Amino acid sequence: MTQKDGAPISWPGKPLPRTFFDRTVTTVAPELLNKILAAADGRAGRIVEVEAYAGAIDAAAHTYRGKTPRNATMFGPPGHMYVYFTYGMHWCCNCVCGPEGAGCAVLIRALQPLHGLAQMRMARPRILRDRDLCRGPARLTQAMGINRAQDGIDLVSADEGFTVLDDGMAPPSHLVGSPRIGISRAKDFPWRWCVPGNVYVSGSTPQQA
To answer: Is 179 within a domain?
Structure first.
């Protein structure tokens, strides 16, 4: 896969098709586990923790009260990246899911670094352990070089610097969802999933059923 300027996305695997994202967000979210978020500059990490946000039925979703300039990408076509600014200092990235207009997305909460670790360390020079480079949604965007410029890019075409790849590793089987982290509404929805026992997960890891 290549970026528009010709720089290769070097990690092996096939970009997920549009049909993967064009499904119910709570179906897509756990199936994103063990997929790879890859950048054209060589950085790549395996997705090990996610949360689903489901538009008008989910009071914790940015899109719950309708469309705004900030959340417009989340109402767009599936397979695009939605990036938002939080706490006045951090960026977080999501994969837009479901039919266009649904306002649904999966927050990528943690990655297991695979490639480009030197670049990640340069982006996060205060981090002492590689385990902490991408352990949390704000940390992973810093490590991967994601900011507002990536809001709205197409992850499926893989020609705007980032994509989500399938390298053949299946999601964990029989996952148990758990409540999402750091929200004040819809706190009981069991819409957070992670790879059980993975040390790169940002919070506790529920067991498999």
So the answer is: no
Structural domain count of the chain: 1
> Exposure of 5 by Cβ count < 10 A (0-12 exposed, 13-18 middle, 19+ buried)?
exposed
Tell me the sheet residues that pair with 45: 37, 113
Place of tokens 């940015």: 62
CATH number at residue 125: 3.10.300.10
Task: Give the model's confidence band at 183: pLDDT under 50 very low, under 70 low, under 90 confident, else very high.
Answer: confident
**Pair 44, 37: CB distance under 8 Å:** yes
Residues 6+ apart with CB under 8 A from 171: 30, 31, 32, 33, 34
Q: How far is the C-alpha of 18 from the C-alpha of 92, rounded, in Å?
A: 21
Query: Exposure of 12 by Cβ count < 10 A (0-12 exposed, 13-18 middle, 19+ buried)?
Result: exposed
Residue 148 lies in a domain: yes
Is 114 within a domain?
yes
User: Measured over all CA atoms, what is the biggest interatomic distance in the chain, rounded to whole angstroms?
Assistant: 45
pLDDT tens digits for 137-171? Answer: 999 999 999 999 999 999 999 889 999 999 999 99
- Residue 106 — φ and ψ, nearest 5°? -110, 120
- Start-to-end CA distance of the chain, whole Å, equals 37
Q: Does the pLDDT value for residue 62 go beyond 60?
A: yes
